[in-house]
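Thread title: Can someone regenerate the structure for this chain?

I was given the following input by a collaborator and told the matching structure tokens would be attached. They weren't. Posting the sequence so someone can regenerate them.
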Amino acid sequence: MALFYGLRQLERWLHQHIFKVGWLILKNFDHTTLLYYTFFLPGVIINQLVYWLMAGVLDVRADRAIRLPEKQEIGELKLNFIKLSKKASPAKVSIITLAPFLAGLLFILFAMNNIFQVNVAFADFDGTLDGVLRGIGRITSAPDFWLWAYVLFTIANTMMPDFKQIRGLRWILTIIGIAMVGLFIIGVGDEIANAAIAGPILNLLNTLSGAFAFVIVLDAVAVGVLSAIENTIEYITGDSATFKNGKMIAMTRQQVIASRNQDRQKKMQALQEPKSVSPLAGVPSVYKLPFPIPSAPGIEPITPVPTAILSAPPPPPSLEKRTTTTREEPKVITVPPVNEPPKPPPPPPRPIVFGGTSAIKDDDDKKADDEIRYEDVEESP
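Best answer:
Regenerated them for you:
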């Protein structure tokens, strides 16, 4: 687990700084993205090919979406050229996701034992510096060493799975755990565990440790070469970049150095400053309250204790004052009577007709007679 963690950290650093070196050379994120994926092309092809083949073995539909990678400002490979069907079960998706990792391990072991012959190189290791140099010389004398080293480097740094997609294996691990508990309850679990640990599991762990250690050594050499190239380009051009939250931010070399110094000073100040602990923190207690401590008799304290005099509230007014006060009466609003009959509208003007009678005039005379009768009825009481 320690070797695997170290390998993950080296891989993340290498991806970021390989992308950074590409940007320092090209100064364009589109071209840098293409160069970045082209550098890891052998690993990308093996990863996606194994991914597609395993999907076919498990009868899961996989659509090929081969296209140029989109522009990005982060040193991270997005291996999404093969897309699985959304109807695939989580267990199958987890197995398909782990397949490139297992294939990469098998290739590393094959290259170690058959191409670089690491086991033969360190078979006669005697623990001295000369023995280490002889072993390294035998490894580097392999035919086409640099070509195989480049292919192994790209495959080893593109085989890590996406751990968010292998959660479907928790059911399989749960079933295996329940079965092991059942075997221990029966009484045969100890014998099976001892036989497994002493046999294939121990050999598998040793093999994985050797593969991880070999890749870490290869990545460490790549880190040294990459650091020399990066520092040389920054020194010549004066341009640089830094990574914040995984994203690359273009800056000058002087700005990067100043930013690093500022971050280092903030960390040092944070370590040197004592952490202030509140006196009331922890379990509440009356002994933690800051009560004033009186001084000795006849001695005045240097810092007087602040005191506050509470004055009594003013007395209420007497009963006589309350009775003599006059109450302000509200203004009376007069409302016209409701039962008053409405006044009739004024009669319209009568038309004047010459040479005869008019129907309009007769109607107006009739309305006037009705109004006179209505007024007589109202005034009769």
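Residues 2-235 form one domain.
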